[in-house]
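Field reference: sequence -> structure
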Amino acid sequence: MIKILELFGGIGAPRKALINLGVNHKAIDYVEIDGHAVRAYNALYDPRYKPQSVIGYNIRPDILIHGSPCQDFSRSGKRLGGKDEDKTRSSLMFETLRIIENMGKWKPKYIIWENVKGVLDKDMIGSFNKYLTELERLGYTNSYKVLNAMDFGIPQKRERIFTISSLNGEKFDFSSMKKRPVKHISEFLETEVTAPQYMITIPSMLKRIAEFNPGETSSYRYLDVIKDRCWTISTRQDRCPNAGIVRMESGQYRYLTERECWRLMGFDDKSFDEVLKEYPTKKNLRNATLYRLAGNSIVVQVMEAIFEVLLEQDPYLASKVEEEIVR
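Structure field:
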């Protein structure tokens, strides 16, 4: 049985990926300070977790997955960075290193870190390089690449950097990841959306619909009408820019629904419905919690492709899975 630890675990995309792959695993712990995310995770997987910080934490997994808060690296954020001394939200990536160091001689065999590709920008890359250097000091070999969810079947242009750090001295072979044909966006959209909260009626938003402004070269993005794929699912859809809007047969335009955003992050409707029970949508109101949980997650299918490579290339992980099957 493969043991994983999820830090800044959100709604558990790595665990959902392992479930989809049919891999015998145990989440030996999950650490998340956002109470809404914890309730959602409990609804999906395990009802025992409570909100907790990663600070001062100590545990021993085979694979440690963390996606420290991205706001201070994001190109749409304040660009505060992740320098350890800054104590920004994104600097919690260094708290993960302290957790690993506190484990002593025993260390996770793999560390997976996901974040926005803004960490590679000129004014942010210093923090990223420091993270890599510290992992090397702890004995890890680092590999990283910006991955797009569209390469793994999801019609969402979501580019995120994934860093795979290994104790075995080998680089992670990103070229071995199994690409999937991108599905059409129609497979993810609901067919009958009539609730008024999803309709775009605010004049200032209607004026910013891209197809009303042909040839416009303004410095800001407009609201793009979704054709065959959407832009990055963020924590809110009622702002400009967003992931894209849907043109309806009636000629109206609408926002993506909460369910559609979860589908575009790789979660099935059964998972969405379980969390919806925890956070019911109020009549004629959009559900801000469900949007935020989706926007802060990792695309499940990208994690599936990463785990597939690790299982195929590492006899140790493969044997742990096989041992559990024999039993």
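Note: The domain at 185-295 is CATH 3.90.120.10 (DNA Methylase; Chain A, domain 2).
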